[in-house]
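ok trying again, last paste got cut off:
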Amino acid sequence: MKKLFTLLVLAMFAFGLSAQRKSAKLPMQRPSAAAKTKGSHRLSLNIPRPGIRHIAKPSRTASKAPELVTVPDDADILPYTPSGSLYTYNGTDWEAASFPVTMNVAFCGNDVYIQGLAHYFPEAWVKGTLADDKVTFATGQYVGEDDYGTEYLIGSDAEDESGESIIDYFFNYDAESGILTLDPSVEILESESADDATAFSFIETLTLTPGGVELVTPPADLEASDWIMEARALGSDDEGGEVYEDITKPLMIGIDGDDFYVQGLCEYLPEAWIKGTRQGSSVVFPAGQYMGTYETIDWNSFSYVSYNMYFAGILSSGTDDDLTITTTDAVFSIDAEGKKLTTANVIGFVDSPEGGNCYVWIEDAEIIKVNATPAVPASPVINEVKIATTYPYVAFNVPLSDVDGNAIAPSKLEYQLFYDIEEDVNPYVFQTEDYQAIENEMETVPYLYTDNYDIITGNGHIVYLYGDQLNKWNRIGIMSIYSVGGEVNESEIAWYEIKPYGSSAAENETTFDFNALTEAEQPVSTSSSHSGDITEDKVIKSGNVSLTVSPSGANTPNRYWKHNNTGLIQLRVYGGTLTFQSDEQNPITGITFYNGKWNEYNEADSGTLYGSSPATWTGNAQEVVISIGGNTQLDKIVVTTTSTTTGITTTKEYNEKASATFDLQGRRVSQPRTNGIYITGGKKIIL
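nice, full thing came through this time. structure:
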């Protein structure tokens, strides 16, 4: 196993690497039960549960829902910390999920109430009765109703492999410690029925320990100032291998006596604080400080996932194949002037206070206080631009330094985008109809601003682009703006050439619509016929694009199949390859796979393949080969090609930044002196 059990790979965490994968915007609501939220635990588990049936599509309950359990006003409600094993069904298999960070337990005489046992209704309470150090909960208690129907918590006999037993469930109670432990003989199932052991999710083990987890809250009158952390972070390259990169991270630090409050360490939760205490020449940050819960979309399953994150010093033991990660206090040395913090600890974010899965791994951290004085900021560095793609974007780095290499304050830094169409340069305007998180249109963006969707910041920036003129852009430019004490200074604009002046490009779409086929046009396979089987390369041509479907090489042949429910024909592929070819004048820039089923192990030989419903490939190639990793059911494929003709090109002097070489902090270098990653002409090079 690699040094990180699971590293959250977002483009903001790696300069110049692939941008955040993105698909159609989804409302922030509970996903359909066909793919109820994938486990929020980052270690993806495929656990066979022969004794527990799952639900793919819940039915609505027409009858009036019963009443929810309520806690008496005089009950003593206490916070508890849960630990154990929770699983949810993702439409295909069972996967591990996370409990709430804190659950509540209420005591009222012999009545005991627990809040948070229902994964999809975490605010719901259930009621049990305490007797002989055991709290028993009647099975079938109602926990809520939503668009998918009513839900109940029921008990199941853990030893019954049929999964059909329905029993009361109970916790063992230690009165001295206050700890509640789910008895190993039972499991708790979340079901659409009070008397049917068919589960959306289930709890296999659970221990509730008194004392909840709270976010660090600084004093209301705390004055924080700009600091910058320089460090090495462990990330992933385009092939999924581990790679260290130098990072520069803006922080806000407030000092209250001996207490140090730090904000901005976690790019996923930029508003979160941690607290340390000065002890002589050191500042100690206790392990296991809760940073918050990061919520995002799993673009492979189109479901919402959440990750509990804790700050800590990180210890590792064992081998790469059997690695254990635990936590320790993070100890920073502080200089005599109180302006520099350094640590030999590995620091980062894990999924539990004690360790487990590690999300972010940072080494050699040095944190320096910034003196905010007027200065001319260094120009940004554009790493990547994708215009001919489903979701156009620009990835760039805004250096936290002035033109002389001195650190500048992130809170006083902004950037502005420009576009050039045939030498007509205009500022790019962020419109409210495109960027849903902003209240008013804007031309400049604060360095620290992010909506975690269209405008993303971390160790580098990504901005998704909108507008019906994008395909006409010849260049895109970015400028830094630094404002201190009423003085505003601007950098030179860093330009990135998209296409020459005088050129024109037109996008064409070629469609392979399998649903539109008839059996007269294309024989199909059935349970009793192999007429639609593909036993040798099958070439399909449409326009200037050809699609070659190879035999599967698997037990099940690739074939044309008539869907049992819809009656429509699908191309079903179980292995082999799909090869798309075009001519040199019309390179392929996009492929959209509309499907009834997509296999997460499908891979492309070039470009970027992401999403699942639909899946999308983007890039620029004359030939694209998709290797099929398993059951994939295709309804339609749309291939986008771009034809380009070049006329008279106007010669124009570009900003010299476009051809200069920079390191990952945006510092210009005349010649790289050490091995590492550099930006030249807006492109990443590795030496």
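cool. The two ends are 27 Å apart (CA to CA). Residues 35 and 91 are 5 Å apart (CA to CA).
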